[in-house]
Amino acid sequence: MATLARRAFKVALFFGLFALSTRYVHPYPYEWTESEMRAWLYTSRALGIRDPEDLYFVVWLTIELIAAVLAYMTIMKLWRHYRTRP
């Protein structure tokens, strides 16, 4: 039962960190410049994606996921270090 509770806590921690990363990592009010728009358009066409905003969304979602994973790994390492400390 304790193992199930730990796993549930870890899953909840990860989803909480992911929610925080989507809130604070993503540049919401950011407008693209003309050169950035051309770069996103060129890249999305090269990848076969119609709308550059779809590519932008996937890229930022990946960055937010990486940020959440790094924060989770850091918290777990600090927790293990704290628990093994005499």
Shape: elongated
How many strands, what sense, and barrel or not for the largest sheet?
Answer: none
How many helical stretches? 3
Approximate strand percentage: under 5%
Structural class comes to mainly alpha
Mean pLDDT: 89
Low-confidence stretches: none
Please estimate the helix content: over 70%
Beginning-to-end CA distance, first to last residue? 27 Å
| CA-based gyration radius | 18 Å
Oligomer: single chain
How many distinct beta strands?
A: 0
Element order, helices and strands? HHH
Keywords: Membrane, Transmembrane, Transmembrane helix
Summary of the model, kept short:
The protein is mainly alpha-helical.
Topology of helices and strands:
Elements: H1 2-24, H2 34-46, H3 52-84
Helix pairs in contact: 1-3, 2-3
Please characterize this protein's 3D structure.
This protein is an all-alpha fold and about 90 residues long. It has a domain at about 55-85. It has 3 helices and no strands. The protein has helices at about 1-25, 35-45, 50-85. The chain is elongated, with a radius of gyration of 18 Å. The relative contact order is 0.12. The model has no long low-confidence stretch (mean pLDDT about 90). Keywords: Membrane, Transmembrane, Transmembrane helix.
